Amino acid sequence: MDILIIALIVIVVIFFLSRRSNKTIISNQEKKLIQICFGDKEKAERLINYELKRHPKLSRKEAADDAVKSIGRDNR
């Protein structure tokens, strides 16, 4: 009986941890990029993917930052 209770607790903990890890965390750079794109998340995603394609070793956060800088240069 004790093993059944422990197994149930383990399953519940795993369930809650797996649900928590599926949430997407958006960096400040990504939020800024989405704001620059007037809320168009798909456009921001395309810009991030473009930067990642140009420089595959960049993190997603760095790619978003590069996209923001690129838009800033283009709009001078």
Folded structure, characterized:
- The protein is mostly helical.
- It has a domain at about 25-75.
- The chain contains 4 helices and no strands.
- It is elongated, with a radius of gyration of 20 Å.
- The model has no long low-confidence stretch (mean pLDDT about 90).
* Rg from alpha-carbon coordinates: 20 Å
For the record, give the distance between the C-alpha atoms at the N and C termini, rounded to a whole number: 70 Å
Number of helices: 4
Major sheet, described briefly?
none
Mean pLDDT: 89
Q: What are the low-pLDDT stretches, counting only 5+ consecutive residues below 50?
A: none
Q: Layout of helices and strands, plus pairs?
A:
Elements: H1 2-21, H2 28-36, H3 41-54, H4 60-74
